[in-house]
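Materials and Methods. Structural model of Precorrin-6y C5,15-methyltransferase subunit CbiE. The 416-residue sequence of Precorrin-6y C5,15-methyltransferase subunit CbiE from Streptomyces naganishii JCM 4654 was retrieved and submitted for structure prediction as follows.
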Amino acid sequence: MITVVGTGTGAAPPERELLAGAGLVVGGRRHLEAAGVPEGAERVVLGPLAPALDVVERYLDQGRRVVVLASGDPGFFGIVRALAERFGPRRLDVRPGVSSVAAAFARLALPWDDAVVVSAHGRELRTAVNVCRAHPKVAVLTGPGAGPAELGAALARTSPGRELVVASSLGDPGRERVERVTPAEAAARDWGAAVSVVLCLDPARALGAVRTLAGPEPAPASGWALEEGAFAHRDSMITKFEVRALALARLGPRTGDLVWDVGAGSGAVAVECARLGAAVVAVEKTADGAGRVRANADAHGVDVTVVHGTAPDALDALEDDPDAVFVGGGGRELPAIVTACARRARRTVVVAMAALDRVPAARGALTAAGFACDGVLLQSSRLAPLPGDVTRLAAANPVFLLWGVRPPARTEGVAQ
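The predicted structure was written out as tokens:
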């Protein structure tokens, strides 16, 4: 049997009974020093996981008891997963402690049932950055090269209004520190190795609302492909909901993604992607259009970064490569815009066009960039009332929707 004990973040050292009779005790150096490992038991200081698991297996094969000491709740982004995968859950006796995330929110007296928790430990930092851009309450589990300074540097460019709470040495009365800083202030510090967790908060929305489900909303409560009336727009210059529905299906926006809406117009696509959990940048060439995008984002309670500029040149100022791009309009510059977007997109580019003449050039730009390209002509007719309590079909203007998907073998090493 493997007894997994959560310690740290204010938890007392494990009781002697849990350690008594253990042939092997595995844990971080500070956990082992605090626990009082019994004489005669072998100690393994956790470093690379595979060699430690090999030692654990040897003791289990001998029928001897193993104790694993871990930080906080070992089932929450912790060692329980690796142990269960290797030895099976039935061989584990888990005694959880308080996770660093729960402890950090407790220090702020904030509920966290509506928080998004993302791990940057041994993973790409960009996912954590995109989650922090899109959601008002995020806990980031940090790691080497993905700590408060790196997170702050990324957010200082995109979301300078966020507040970072850096919690270090949680549970250590002499060393614990919980500091509120701006992203720029976080970027300018050397935080050392004692950081437990970083919270990223929108100060205006940090308390949150009463929830039924924990974590981010799995999908907008009112659905997607909203009616045009849900957005402020000029002279019906808005991507119609039928087109938006298929565009969203092909873009596949989700939590952790970054999406560009190029030629945003009203920002309907940008807002819908944000409602589905993605971080979004909307590029719009007109000042009044950029204002409408901001107003629509505010009306729907989502974060959208609005760039007032003309594509493709405005795209050069966007430092972070998107997962998916929606291109609406574009005029004569459309091939150059699609080419610029395809060069940067990690997964998908979707292009909507009303003009037949633009289709070959847009398709050529996608295929020339190595994308697998497909598309449809969308023709819809909506029910419209007539006098006498009868109904006719009112045809909407046809729209071409093309999409290019980067082949899986080329998802890494995208040209910068």
